[in-house]
Write a structure and sequence with these properties.
With 298 residues, the chain is an alpha+beta fold. Helix content is 30%, strand content 23%. Strands 6-7-8-9-10-11-12 form a seven-stranded antiparallel sheet, with no helix packed on it.
Length: 298
């Protein structure tokens, strides 16, 4: 047996060693935590710098033409085009932002008609009519041509587009889902110019919002649709085919273009409908067609 004095000494040493190990472990944990926080701070800083560089690059592309529109300086005839580009941030996974660009014959620039959400909050009206690049990048995201009509007949469409934009009834309201939004605005204008023959993509969320009236022409003006405030409905039209809208998501098929319409993806078709199309003359509804009158040709 050890003397009691020895046991006491050993007990004190063991206690001291335990306290030392505890102190060392705490110090190591603190150092590791400090290293982790330091690396996290550097990662956040690097991400912030990278994000700012990307944002600057996108802002640099904001007015850069994508080569989809004719040069207004060298194009004498009237041109009307419809565009769509994926929305910014998380919204781009679900939908697009659309706009209409028009150039009268002889004009040196395009006039763009669109609805912008943040402008609605700032000025009370989201309708924006501006002279700018028609096919610009949307916050750095490339656009897609949905329709391209040119010629003397396009000139007549521009006045109707201008009037429809000025008379848009939901200029003071903007809702990402289910509408009214930028796609609601474009769809409303397109109903007044069915000669454009535009089939808005399934990702144009808000295009089917028709307000309290519930029943309306399709955006192409070639059919009819029933929709409950953009959240549920059905559509059938010569240009659009058949669509079912459920909670703002569109499913459909377009036999004319051999296309499927799917949420998140959009329109997937075999026939290209975005090539420039001449519209030589607008034939009034009910007017007899003579050999001298020409219709839109692809």
């Amino acid at each position: 047996m050890f003397p009691s004095a020895c046991v006491e000494i050993f007990s004190q040493d063991e206690s001291a060693c335990g306290e030392s190990r505890h102190t060392d472990a705490a110090a190591i944990t603190k150092r590791r935590l400090a290293v982790f926080l330091g690396r996290a701070a550097l990662a956040i800083l690097a991400a912030s710098v990278a994000g700012e560089l990307v944002a600057q690059d996108r802002r640099g592309q904001f007015r850069t033409p994508a080569g989809l529109a004719p040069d207004p300086a060298t194009t004498e005839e009237a041109v009307v085009q419809v565009y769509a580009a994926r929305a910014t941030q998380w919204r781009g996974y679900f939908g697009v932002h659309s706009w209409i660009a028009a150039k009268p014959a002889g004009a040196g620039s395009f006039t763009v008609y669109e609805l912008v959400g943040y402008q609605t909050q700032r000025t009370g009206s989201g309708v924006r009519t501006s002279r700018r690049v028609a096919d610009r990048y949307w916050d750095g995201i490339p656009a897609q041509v949905l329709a391209d009509v040119r010629g003397p007949g396009a000139e007549a469409l521009i006045a109707r587009i201008r009037a429809a934009a000025a008379a848009y009834p939901d200029a003071k309201t903007y809702r990402i889902w289910p509408g009214p939004n930028s796609n609601t605005f474009v769809a409303q204008i397109l109903r007044t110019v069915p000669e454009m023959r535009v089939d808005l993509p399934a990702t144009a969320i808000g295009k089917d919002y028709v307000g309290p009236q519930l029943v309306a022409l399709t955006p192409s003006g070639t059919g009819a649709q029933f929709n409950v405030f953009g959240a549920a409905g059905v559509l059938a039209g010569w240009e659009e085919g058949i669509e079912v809208n459920l909670l703002g998501l569109t499913f459909g098929v377009n036999p004319k273009r051999l296309a499927l319409k799917l949420p998140l993806i959009g329109n997937v078709g075999l026939i290209d409908s975005t090539k420039p199309r001449r519209l030589d003359e607008i034939i009034p509804a009910g007017a007899p067609t003579t050999p001298r009158q020409s219709v839109a040709s692809r």
